[in-house]
Protein 1
Amino acid sequence: MLGTLNGALEVRGVSLPSEAMQVSVDGINEVRDGIPVLTLIAIRYALRIPKGSREVVDRALARHQDKCPTASTLKGAVEVSWTAEIEEV
């Protein structure tokens, strides 16, 4: 989803260097019928964005999961969630 978010930002004229975009991901497995099954992927973004771009970034964040090929593939099978900590610099 990071690539999709980055692309959505660039299309909107917000280009962030790699050091301005941090991401961490946790996966949660549950055992079902003795088999570990991935049930949740939780993504946490930490973004350092240019002052005055918050509205554009918020719009990109709101839509990026729906446009992500991987998230779309997993839809219905694995819950994908995200949060974002945003700092304007």
Note: Residues 2-88 form a domain with the GMP Synthetase; Chain A, domain 3 fold (CATH 3.30.300.20).
Protein 2
Amino acid sequence: MALPRKPVTGMKDILPREMEIRNYLQGKVREIYGRYGFTEIETPVVEHIENLCSNQGGENEKLIFRILKRGEKLDIDGAKDQSDLTDSGLRYDLTLPLSRYYAAHMNELPSPFKALQMGSVFRADRPQKGRFRQFMQCDIDILGDATNLAEIELILATTSLLAETGFHGFSVKISDRRFLKAMAAYSGFREEEYDRVFIILDKMDKIGMEGVRQELQDAGFEEKSIEKYLSLFNSGKTGTESISLLKETLGEHLPEGAADSLMEIIDCVNTVKNGDFEIVFDPTLVRGMSYYTGTIFEITMDEFGSSVAGGGRYDGMVERFTGNKVPACGFSIGFERIITILLDRDYRIPSKKGKEAFLIDKKIRGARLSEIMQEARDRRENGSTVLVTKMMKNKKFQKDSLMEAGYTEIREFFE
């Protein structure tokens, strides 16, 4: 029986055309984030299972690829549950490994520390367009800065990357988990109910206000609390006006400084941004990760049905490793989603040097072949991409394929 040719479900083979774009995007990431002072690091794809299951990753903890213990440590017959069989797993994001990394090396790192990390993560999720079980994540994080300068820098760096990759007219949605909790408290929900309320609120963009009302009713919440809660989303105000109104309405339920910090971020980004986008306050923004403690943000594009970037402040995560609170904030672009959009656009990588193809007749030998190879060498040394290959019988098909691959100059060589 022949071996399977297709990759495992949820994984993908990457063809040369896509690989070229992926490498280009990674290069842009390093170039643009480097301008903002971010330093690239790397962490292992395998993490301790107790770290991955620390109640920090939300729903992602249900999607962990666990790794069996090895050798004598693997006692299948004596195992009572899966915790007896596994001691590690594949990382489901880059934030938790970064927190462990920082806790282990903080004395060797500058403060604040601006980290850039790119690498594969793994989730046993249901595959769909732009979503795989193995996928690349690209994160920037600032650790050790408790001020909103961290949020401003993260937003400006991320939007600069998108703008310089050809994206325009997108939206940066911003809110704060402290607003979410204050709104729930003001409406009369109990603290233990907050997460259930937020899960339903997170569906607002898909099911609308009436859909959220119905789900809150179906969940058994009091009608008085539901109506008071939903009234907070009907102010008719936008931007910083909406923040000011909510600040006044929520009163003592909202921690001091939360509203002012959010307005300062929005005003500063609007003043200095260098791309065509808008930054808007969205009180329905939730973000699924339970580790977020303050500001949260997300980027959406009309041509893609869901967010293409997201992040926020997670001041409590490093503390789980060190016992000391360390302020931290990060922004992650959806690398695979960006690649999907670029492929759908038939994106062409801008290049100063041309891509040339030398088609050599099969009769060419000896000195003539050496002459052609020397010319190819000279052009390569000057920075051009030169493909040297034998001429096919069906030259039209060969040339069309080369043009599709981005070769703008095709030369034929005969004896």
Note: The chain is about 40% helix and 20% strand.
Protein 3
Amino acid sequence: MPNQGPLQGLRVIELASIGPGPMCCMLLADLGADVIRVDRLEPSGLGLAMDKRFEVNGRSRRSVAIDTRKPAGRDAVLKLVEDADVLIEGFRPGVTEKMGLGPVDCHARNPRLVYGRMTGFGQQGPLAMAAGHDLNYIALTGALHAIGTGGDEGKQGHGGRPVPPLNLIGDYGGGALYLAFGVMAALFERQRSGRGQVVDAAMVDGAASLASIFFGLKAAGTWDASSREVNLLDGGAPFYSTYETADRRHISLAPLEPKFFATLAAAIGLDDKFVKRQYDRRLWPEMREAIAAVVRGHTRDEWCARLEGTDACFAPVLSFDEAAGHRHAGERDAFVEVDGVVQPGPAPRFDRTPAGRPRPAPAVGEHTDVVLAEAGFEAATIAALRAQGVVR
């Protein structure tokens, strides 16, 4: 069954990798692109090994298993490239060139190809060839330094350590999303020029770009970059923070604007002096204690009943299981079940060309025969390649 969505008709060749590359291709596949993943015949030993049912980022594409180290395997991939719009690779700089699948090789076959490259440090620079992961990339951008605790026992602004924010900022926010955006921008430009180009997406670049506002705040003198939990958006402001409830769960409060803070204050019975002096940092420690004391007086569900849906800028802090079952997510069908696994559905949404239901991740080589046949390979040729150990 073909994918549905606004990208229907777009063909993407994905050289199997880990992290942001697969997620970028998931985003494209979710929105209708025909993503063909070129898998190795044997596991690479990279990433987290798991049953394909749980490989959410690998959903909604097709898989061919090809040994690209062999000339016949390389040629088979180049044959697939001839009819593709996009190629995505996530290797260190120079690896695909050594494989004979670099930009020059691919553009010789298809000058219109958009060649997307996903790395941590970029295609050049003193760290370009170093191994790393999300945490290392965001450490270089200032983003990791700004996220974490201010110190022991709630002493804000002193000591403490940076806290890994999952791998959302480097791998996915600064990596997958910027690669997808870059690919779509190159496709838009291709409409004018008729030519493809290379998209160099580096997680250090994307993560730094995500932090643009904080560089501006720092330059304006309104962000203290030397400490944590002392600024407006890092947990320093008592009206932009999380609080523990009576049942040892947590809620989030974020009424940054005075009118929203006034709504919260009225709803929880906060002293009016805090409303009048919301941005007076000298009052923040007392304000925090006052809010914490009130919040501890009720359970999370009680706070939901009182504040959810109001302009108090409130939300309960949910686990992944709870998030999938929340009534708002249910109303929007934000989560789907694929092969027995609950997972987020395609995003964003489109009114005329909605995305279809995601399909399970393919088994390695599940579509080898079909995809190669579409590319013009005869059945006898495919059988011969399989006998030679070139495909599976």
Note: The chain has a mean pLDDT of 96.
